[in-house]
Design brief:
With 306 residues, the chain is α+β, with helices and mostly antiparallel strands. Helix content is 49%, strand content 18%. The chain has twelve helices and nine strands. Strand 4 and strand 5 form a beta hairpin. The relative contact order is 0.10.
């Protein structure tokens, strides 16, 4: 039976978007057995709260629902660790460097450092991009779960330029990206642009992709070879930075500590409650039981401060 209460409808829509990665409003209406007008009303509210995002009529999970960026790293820690790495790439290559993550069947740029040149390739933070066109997008797709790869390969592949991969060559490009650990694109999403990207892995799982992109008239063969080597160094540097971050209880305690610094006494008193709720709801399922217990004990001290 269709969901009856407002809460049931909201949770049904969120669950469908989460499970499918990305859906159109009419697809959500059919799956939830609700009128399209009703679905649009709920989606509008969910967007206002950052719970969903939309790009070209396709809705995907929003940043407010964002969990860890990988087995160890929160999205905030990832961006903080990656920013100096991106700056180094810009200084060394002269072109824009960006950090992207996968959200459902799309890629999202979460950080960038722009090239100092007036004519440059630039990204929009938070913009949802297709996984089949572009270097970092292809890297994210190549290391994505099998069901995500299947969804993209079996879906429509919009042709943005003459060089955009299609159904006949995308699968081979994904195999090449995994085999060579790096992807190169030439005008696949934006004409006259060239990009190089590589994955950042943590505990065997992809966390993000690092990309350097610039105008093809300025980025020749020598630039391409040198940039691949520089990106390899950047990936090693970012991986090392992430591996040095505290895990488990210390990381959770630090997170609550940081938020408590700017909170009032009543909010600080809820420190351990926040952690307990997130753990019991599976927000941090990767933590071992002793890490959870330690985090609760550590953050309880935060709640007693005022």
């Amino acid at each position: 039976m269709p969901p009856r209460t407002a809460v049931e409808r909201t949770l049904t829509i969120l669950r469908l978007i989460h499970d499918h990665g990305a859906m159109r409003a009419d697809e959500l209406a059919g799956a939830a057995r609700l009128p399209v007008s009703t679905v649009y009303r709920y989606l509008r509210t969910l967007r206002e709260y950052g719970l969903v995002t939309v790009q070209e009529g396709v809705y995907a999970p929003g940043w407010a629902l964002d969990g860890p960026a990988g087995p160890r790293v929160s999205r905030v820690e990832l961006i903080e660790s990656a920013t100096p790495v991106l700056r180094g790439l810009v200084q060394a290559t002269g072109e824009t460097a960006a950090l992207s993550v996968r959200v459902g069947t799309h890629a999202v740029c979460v950080q960038q450092v722009k090239s100092p040149h007036s004519i440059r390739v630039a990204f929009e933070i938070g913009q949802m991009l297709p996984l089949h066109a572009g270097a970092s997008e292809r890297v994210l797709l190549a290391y994505a779960p099998e069901q995500v790869v299947h969804a993209v390969l079996s879906g429509e592949l919009r042709q943005y330029t003459r060089s955009t991969p299609n159904h006949s060559n995308l699968a081979s490009k994904l195999r090449s990206a995994r085999a060579s650990w790096v992807a190169t694109s030439r005008g696949e999403f934006t004409s006259d642009a060239i990009a190089v990207a590589a994955p950042v892995l943590c505990d065997g799982e992809i966390v993000c992709a690092i990309e350097v992109a610039g105008p093809d008239r300025r980025c020749g063969h020598d630039w391409l070879i040198g940039t691949k080597e520089l990106i390899a160094d950047a990936v090693r540097g970012l991986t090392s930075a992430m591996e040095s971050l505290p895990r488990g209880a210390p990381a959770l305690a630090r997170c609550v500590e940081q938020r408590a610094e700017s909170a009032g006494p009543d909010q600080r008193a809820k420190g351990s409650e926040v952690v307990r709720n997130r753990v019991t709801r599976g927000r941090w399922p990767h933590l071992a039981e002793h890490d959870v217990n330690g985090a609760l004990a550590a953050t309880a001290d935060v709640g007693r401060r005022s």
